[in-house]
Specification:
Elements lengths: L1 E7 L3 H8 L6 E4 L7 H5 L6 E4 L7 E2 L2 H10 L2 H10 L4 E3 L7 E4 L2 H11 L4 E3 L4 E7 L2 E6 L3 E9 L14 H8 L4 E7 L3 E2 L6 H4 L4 E8 L2 E9 L3 E3 L1 H9 L5 E4 L10 H10 L6 E3 L3 E2 L7 E6 L16 E3 L7 E2 L4 H16 L1
Length: 345
Amino acid sequence: MIYDICIIGAGASSLMCASNLKHKSICIIDSNNNIASKIKVSGGGKCNITNENMSHRYFKGDNVFIKDILEQFSNEDLKKLLKKNNLYFELNPKIVKGTYFCKSSNDVISMFKSLTKHCKFELNTKVNDVDYENNIYIINTNKKQIKSKKLIVASGGLSFANLGANSIGYDIAKKFGHTINTLNPALVGFTVQKDQFWFKELSGLSMDVKIKVNDKVVEGSFLFTHKGCSGPAILTTSLYWEKGKISIDFAPYKDSYLQKRFKRATRELNMDIHNYEFAPAGNFGFSKAEVTKGGINTNEINNTMQSKLQKDLYFIGEVLDVTGELGGYNFQWAFSSAVVCARNI
């Protein structure tokens, strides 16, 4: 059998894309035993599905490209779709302003299971390589060959290796001539240098801060950890940090509350709590990162999500060099790029 479409990956972007391609023969391949493994663990099991403050300004990547895709399928379009499918969601800004959470990640997965009943799933199946012969894609897996007229790569990034993340999407892109911009962990905590070892003594303490990183200002909760620092503000900071110093205001508001442990530690250091500068040593790595920044260069992808270099080859979701801040932005990108792809197929 030759499918109309084969999709590599069974995550958010893949399932959204397939659900919008009802009258096609579709095969979805994933190395996991179950679909949507990353959706299941997201947002503490409640899936932070989008944000009310959706804009290209909250993403790292080509602003023009990102803006175009988000406008074609917006956060309001997504909310309408969820309501149409009786999926409950609500605004919960406790962690990040404007974030919408679902009642349970399992509700999102159940919706997609219902919307993709027309698809053939090949789970627990690893893609080893892809060939293209006589206008047909030949997907070589650890079990069998699968053939398809069109190929959509929705395999995600390198974070969450325990959920089956691997480099296959980038490998396929490179095989067909695409450029892969440098891959790094993002939305991840920082390790610290010797001068910041006092962070570890305050492990578990959390406080609201403002962080300056390059030309960005990030607000949110900062968490001292036994490895360095984490928390929502640091996770978003990690998206924009490459190397060098960041600056933290530990008391940015008039009503900022400073705990005794913090005041004692900073008094001994005689430091400026409104402008504490330091250079992170590094980050906690892909095993702790929520997403991968970098990826397939979007200059080589058109605004239908199709490759400019290879006929009938599409890339959607995290595999592209588009990464959002913490707070539902990456799910919106997954869904927007998926719907744009499906509409153009």
